[in-house]
Amino acid sequence: MNPLILLRAHRGTAAVLAVLALSTALLIAALPRQAEASYDDALHGILDDTAASLTDLTVSQRPRSPEQHVTTDELFKTADARWRSLLPPVLASAQDRSRRGAAHYGVKSIGTPVAGRLGGGERSFQYVDLAWLSGAAQRVRYVEGRPPGPPSVLARVPGLPELRDVPRFDVALVENASDRMAIPVGTTLVLGNSRPILARVTGLFQVLDKTDRYWQHELDLTNVTVRRVAGSDVEEHRITGLTDLSALGELSRTDRDLMNKWVIALDPSVLTSRNAVPVIAEVGDYQRFLSQESAKRVTSSGQIGAFVPFELHTGLADLLRDFMKRLGTAQALMALIIGGLAVVAIGVIALTVQLMTERLRPALGLARARGASLAQVAGAGTGVVALAVVPAAVVGYALSYLVPGPVTPVVHLGPLLLSAVAVAYAAVRLAFSHRKPLNQRREDVVARRPSPRRVVVELLAVVLALGGAYLLRTRGLTTEDNAAQGADPFLMLVPAALTVAAALITLRCYPFPLRLVVRLAARARPAVPFVGLTLAARARSVTALPVLILLPALAVSVYGAVVGDALDATQHRAAWQATGAAARVDSAAELSPEAVERVRRVPGVRGVVPADKGTVQLGLGGSTATVVAVDLDAYRRILAGTPLQAPPPAPAPDPSAIPVLVSPDLAHLSTFEIGWHVRMNLTKAGTITGGLPGVSFTTENLIVVPYDASKRAGARLYTTLLLIQGDGIDPAQLRAAVGDRRDILVSTVEQSLGKVTATPLTATITGSFLVATIALGVYALLTVVIALVVGAAERARALSYLRTLGLSERQAANLTVLEITPLVVLTACAGLVLGLVLPSALGPSVDLSVYAGDLAVRDYEPGVTTPVLLAAGLAAVAVAGAFLHAVIGRRRSLGSILRVGE
Amino acid sequence: MSELETPIDLEDPTLSELEARAGHTRPAFGEDAHILCDNLVRIYKTEGVEVVALQGLDLLVEKSELIAIVGASGSGKSTLLNVLSGLDVPTAGVARVAGTDLLAMTAKDRLRYRRELVGFIWQQTARNLLPYLSARENVHLPRRLAGRGAGADRPPVDDLLDLLGVGYCADRKPAEMSGGEQQRVAIAVALSNSPQVILADEPTGELDSENSEQVFAALRGANRELGVTAVVVTHDPLVSEQVDRTVGIRDGRTSSETLRREASDGNIIAEEYAVLDRVGRLQLPRDFTGTLGMERRVRLELERDHIGVWPDKPQPEDPQ
């Protein structure tokens, strides 16, 4: 038997099989790649947005004994090489050693106060540190003066007779520090209070490239740090200046606190979602290596007193841990989508293989009767399927390389699994159907009773799925201590297992409702419903696969719709909670009534609720509380129709009192005094739980007073906050209306929604759900058509007999539709229910909050309409497929059908 | 009836007679027959339903004989043919074809049996041939399945087609041939592996009389030229009247045999016999029993040269 001849003879079916294999291989190889690419994009986005000082590795030591000082460039280099040699493998491969990279080393003094200036012009509360950093000289441009030169020693210091033999270092400062700290070129600073040193400012520089990640490690050189001195109104200023390489030795001999540091820059592009877990572990390992290295350097007991370990500074592990937590959810959802898609696609392919084996049956049956061995028959049939599937799967696999993204084992395994399943299914099916040479199927005579073995296996599948779902609900996809390791693969299979369980239950229970309907139909006058439904009830061999395909298709798309809806709603709620109204203006200073009036005239603004917010002292004690003065009635009016809610205002117990709402922790207060704009007496009239989302994020120590409270207490109205109702408000216009001041914060719902939805993973998930839903719809349609084609010959004969009895063509088409409808409708119902139940079954384990502005996604019940529409749509598409098939089948002449196989 | 004779012979046996008798094994039933079915039973069991298709069928066919099997629809003809062709396994009894015991075959033996000993032809012309192979390729197929090319021991494919009168169809696909040509190619396919027996299930069932004639002629030609034993199940009087022996099957048993011989004047004389099985059972034709109202019991009377069968009570419509 030559498979090629058979393939040519059944090229139509083979073409369908090939197209399916190609598209499925492409889908299940490309989707994971794309997903992985987007995970990496997200990780790289996070790493790029994070300061290099957090993503790179910094080894530091504050030397205490002379031998710990690093006094030459060579010694720094040696140490640098040593640190790099200690790096664990993945981190070592991720080193960024390029010239433009951020890697460098150097020494800095720490917290050196300016004790005075030679030649007067004292300024207090200034700190100037000295630093030498490799590569810094190439990254600056001198705008005034000259680069620092080698240090010198002054035997005497004019004006300070007590100082003898003082070292003087040349130092260059960043330009704006010179302005802000009033240190012009030529100034000589006295640094340190004991055994001071001198620092002569020889030049001012600008950073060549402000975006250079190098400088993110050295922000103390490029920016003046301003700090409020505790307990006073005074601000202190800190800056670090650059000295020359030749100053290294002299610097180590001074009494200043020094810190040596080596920055090992990492290339973010090497870090991926796949090596994140090992990297987290390696950072811990590296820390341990460093402390071992420190311990090694202690060789005598005298050094123990001065023992200073090498320290590792990096935020990389925490960043990756946080990312892996987010990724876990995304991966669980992608596993669900791709898994569902794979199950459905492979099911459709199996169905097509079944069609192919049915088509091959006469030829192979003849060959078997004429002396072909089982191996010859099964080999020839399997060869046909393999010839159709394998090259197509290879092409699909190859095409998937057009989709950018890293190659993971899934990419190879998907097409491989697909081909293996198709070929194995063909082989097993052929072997079973041609085991005996004479294969007269008499399934029409008696129904096969379910074997006890099969019942046990099915029960086991159902119990496993339910057990898995229970575990998933109780302990989640990951446990606390292994969150960074990724999700539990067994539990990730639970959705698929639940789907299979539901399909098995549907298959078992499918005849029961049908029987009821058949009984009803038997009483009715028209024959078509009765015959159609009876045919449906008897169609056994054809039903299992379509149910197994249609059910997950529906479940996954309904789940996608429900999750999408919930995510969408939560994202909106998060956005509204972030702003508190359609738009909000926050001002540190008071907003004038004119400004409020201008805001009212901004296009799109429909209403403005002025409010006041501040922190006040409670009574005369030390505790403080957040107070919000707002007209709750007005606020409630502008919140109508938004996801936000505000409590009703408290009724006043007596006209003179000021009624307030307090958070539960202040509920013990009945009347109390606060000192705000004016001291006022407040009367508690109710409690407010959960804070005022969008206005005040604190849920504790919160007091909500009427807007006119200060006026009632004898002062006037104050406004620092505007809650604005309207549509399409332009934040720029709003900002212009309130006077473009730096201390005014303007936000709109659209802006915060943009922030919430801009996470790269969110787009991936919603996009994948869309692709999956469309693909599943197509598969569902194909399923019905192929299932009908598989049984076409038999059905055509049955219909033709009925037509000789007077069945019209129209009735025949209806009959076909009726035959498939119960299956589609019942499966649609089961799929819909499963899809609706899945989110609440998996809800706690699939934590979507990271995609919804860290707001828990809990309302899974909202849009039943979308899923129902989806299920109805899919069912309609499937039934339409049946109708199409029936209409096409109509063209064949009665006689030709009746003669086939006689 | 030798059992009945024994006591008479035993009256005075000589020692040498006894010795000769002990050393002499009597020929078993149909020992030298090419096809032997003895008390063959085939029961189809599906859950809840049991169909007895063959109920103790006996059949003997000599080598190179051409016989026809006739019978009403559902009488078990096709089941018998499926059993003989090795496609189906009988439930009980003895079935032996060319010395091969059909009940004691392993799957491997069965495959070898189908490859080397039998060939068969179905009624449906479309079912016999692969539509996408030419006649020559179709004939060649069984040889390739058996793992043998054009061996020296079998006639070339084209000779086979010529023998059946369809040499001109060698390169045609089944769709390009008439039904009769297709059936004749099918006979060639059946003969491809030089089987000892060919079995045909209504080979002319779908053909007009002219084509039937040609197909049957081809079949008979193959029987004569190649000496192959042929069993033909048929409804077609054209066929059944041209063979030497016609076996009738009723209710899963052989019920009658018709023998034909040529009379001296050239006419064909057909004589129908009832079949007496090995345990002495006889099927009385339903017409006979109906006419005489025979039910449940009959009376037998042994006469000198025949056995009389009477109804158990006198016929009411027979006042004499």
- Span of the ends, CA to CA of chain B: 37 Å
Strand order, sheet with most strands of chain B = 6-7-8-3-9-10-11
Count of separate DSSP helical elements of chain A: 29
SSE topology string of chain B: HHEEEHEEHEHHHHEHEHEEEHEE
Topology:
The complex is a heterodimer of chains A (902) and B (320).
Chain A: H1 3-9, H2 11-49, H3 52-55, E1 57-61, H4 73-85, H5 89-93, E2 104-109, E3 114-117, E4 126-133, E5 140-145, E6 152-157, E7 160-174, H6 175-180, E8 188-191, E9 197-207, H7 213-216, H8 219-222, E10 225-228, E11 235-242, H9 248-253, E12 258-264, H10 276-296, E13 311-313, H11 316-369, H12 374-399, H13 409-433, H14 452-475, H15 489-492, H16 494-509, H17 511-523, H18 527-538, H19 544-579, E14 583-587, H20 593-600, E15 605-618, E16 624-630, H21 632-639, E17 659-662, E18 671-675, E19 679-687, E20 702-705, H22 709-712, E21 721-726, H23 731-737, E22 744-748, H24 749-757, H25 760-790, H26 792-804, H27 809-842, H28 865-889, H29 894-899
Parallel strand pairs in A: 4-11, 7-9, 16-20, 17-19
Antiparallel strand pairs in A: 1-12, 1-13, 2-4, 2-12, 3-8, 5-9, 6-7, 8-9, 10-11, 14-21, 14-22, 15-16, 15-18, 15-21, 17-20, 18-19
Helix pairs in contact in A: 1-12, 2-11, 2-12, 2-13, 2-25, 10-11, 11-12, 11-13, 11-19, 11-25, 12-13, 14-16, 16-19, 16-27, 17-18, 18-27, 19-24, 19-25, 19-27, 19-28, 25-28, 26-27, 27-28
Chain B: H1 2-10, H2 15-23, E1 35-46, E2 49-61, E3 66-71, H3 77-84, E4 92-97, E5 100-101, H4 107-116, E6 118-121, H5 125-128, H6 135-145, H7 157-163, H8 179-191, E7 197-201, H9 209-226, E8 229-233, H10 237-240, E9 245-250, E10 253-262, E11 268-274, H11 286-291, E12 298-302, E13 307-311
Parallel strand pairs in B: 3-8, 3-9, 6-7, 7-8
Antiparallel strand pairs in B: 1-2, 1-4, 4-5, 9-10, 10-11, 12-13
Helix pairs in contact in B: 6-8, 8-9
